[in-house]
Amino acid sequence: MHIVERTKNLMTNTGSEWVMWLLILLSVASIAIIAERMIVLRSLGGDISRLRRMLVDALRDGGFSQARAALSAERHPAARVALRGLEGQESSTSADQAKEAMSAEALVQKRSLERRFAFLATLGANAPFIGLFGTVVGILQAFDALGHNATGAVSAMAPQAVMSSISEALVATAIGLAVAIPAVFAFNMFERTVKSAMDDAEILALEIASYLKSELSRRAPVSARDATPSASVSVGRLAASLS
User: Fold this and answer.
1) What is the per-residue pLDDT for 199?
2) Vertex 111, ends 68 and 188: CA angle to 5°?
3) Is residue 214 one of the residues assigned to a domain?
4) Does residue 148 lie within any of the structural domains?
5) How far apart, in whole angstroms, are the C-alpha atoms of residue 27 and residue 236?
6) Is residue 238 part of a domain?
7) pLDDT at residue 232 greater than cutoff 80
8) CA distance 158 to 167
9) How far apart are CA 126 and CA 4, in angstroms?
10) 10 Å Cβ neighbour count for 59?
11) Domain contains 151
């Protein structure tokens, strides 16, 4: 019981005001992160339909070099992922090599876009509990005051004082919810935006892989035709030497 009494005295002495200030500071940090991430995600721009059409036309007209020139000015993560797959020459780059390079770049872009998301998720999950802790401390203070003052004429005023203290304590829970709701909303909205950007990157990556596979299939018959005359010449030379 000694530790219980000491804990109760510590809570009643400190009160719940510090919980309010903590929630206010967390709210300010949350608003700053939401504003910063919103600016970053909105500045990406880029319409995936336009980017896809630009990439396909550039690959068809001028190969990797023209595609790099077309996408180099784009800030969309999908364009940066595509540029990673276009770094080499199509004659020496296989579809699997390009896909692996673009998958690595997609992870880098995703990690960059999701910066500080963990803070929003953690705040959204725990801010109500912080507010509830402040409410519990406030209620503890109210009942402790009721136990000390419930004597004589003061006892008539005690219920009103307790109700007033409890209503003030509930403010901490309300502030906790007010901090958590915007953080959760922003986190979910940002997560959908990042997922959409990664889906766009996958679309461009598949277009590049498809182009490389079609280029390989076009080069294969040429190689076969080139090998046939040389084989015929070798057979002719062998027959001449035997005769």
Assistant:
1) 94
2) 115
3) yes
4) no
5) 86
6) no
7) no
8) 14
9) 25
10) 22
11) no
